[in-house]
Amino acid sequence: MAKQIQAVRGMNDCLPGTTQVWQKVEDILRKTVASYGYQEIRFPIVESTDLFKRSIGEVTDIVEKEMYTFEDRSGDSLTLRPEGTAVCVRAGNQNGLLYNQEQRFWYMGPMFRHERPQKGRYRQFHQFGVETFGIASADIDAEIILLTARLWETFGISQYVRLEINSLGSNEARAQYRDALVAFLESHIEQLDEDSKRRMHSNPLRVLDSKNPDVQAVLEQAPKLSEHLDDESQAHFKNLCERLDAAGVEYQVNDSLVRGLDYYNRTVFEWVTDSLGAQGTVCAGGRYDGLVEQLGGKATPGVGFAMGLERLVLMLQELECVGDIRRNADVYVATMGDEASIQAPVIAEQLRNEVSGLRVMVHAGGGNFKKQLKRADKSDAVVALIFGEEELAQGTVTVKYLREQKEQVTVSFDEVKILLQALTV
Ligand code: HAM
To answer: Where is the secretion signal located (predicted)?
Structure first.
């Protein structure tokens, strides 16, 4: 036998059964953002490598070691998108959607990062994201956080996620803080690990993110970002907190939350859970007021977030919060005799026309009646509709209940439509 070809490591198939959960999740996401007036934006999966280098930052995990970068046949360096924010800004700039305008966008789709795969972390994963432009005040930061809180409520997982927020301040304030932090790190250099030593000069704020407990112990004495915030950023953060308080959204201020991408300023936030093991961040985002300009547009503030859909689906499954899933067939049509097998699909078309939303699966592939009923049993359907010569002649159909102990009945066509209507809800 020929050797089977396997999927690329960290890139998963999504199979029937699970796709239904995804569809339900996607449906709730779409409806929720629509209820806030957000519009969908779609953009390519492949972009110029420079886009990500210039936005996410040269000294970040994503750009240093995780991008799927390749040369195309014209010799251009292209990258499979590792995230959506930079792409959204590129699309907004290129299509004149940002300057002097207010925009609320959402997007959904695959992203690619060459990370070490584990539960909740994949090389192809899916994000649902929101990006807003043209609004500098904290009301919009609060709005997108409220939107996420509503999503957890709708999914029934509010009690399993918690919100962490922080402010990174203005670029100038961060530069001042950076100097103070570097001075501190230099004076403790012998206690740092190799990664932190390397980052200390190239991207010192990321040292705060270190997962190494020894480094974290040293950092307890480090200067705090919150002590270096500029007045405007402080006021912005205070206003955000007031708005979250007023809306009853609970949060923890996490001083060492700095995020792994360089474009952020002021507000950053993450929704984290203990239900997923090591990969506990379900949703993350923040403000990026300098990014539009940095990518060649006119200065326009922006704030947004993205959530990992694999993580969300895993959570829903593990916490048994998936809820009802619509069965993929309500009715299985079985036939007896050649004429009935020709007429049944035609009648099925009529049923689909007349009973809106009804899912009708018609037996195909021949076989005797017993085999057909076995298939009906294996399908999701709750009733089998049986057409034989006699039924055809009299304009009736026999209804066999597949999931309950109920006598089968032979009814007229009009009656069967009424009976089937009840199955579509
Ligand atoms: P991020 O923190 O890199 O931010 O990713 C956002 C979310 O995507 C994470 O919290 C996680 O749920 C999910 N995620 C990231 N990497 C993986 C992976 N390898 N496997 C599975 N899920 C993953 C961003 O991407 C920013 N663009 C978010 C943003 C939007 N900020 C402002 N607007």
So the answer is: none
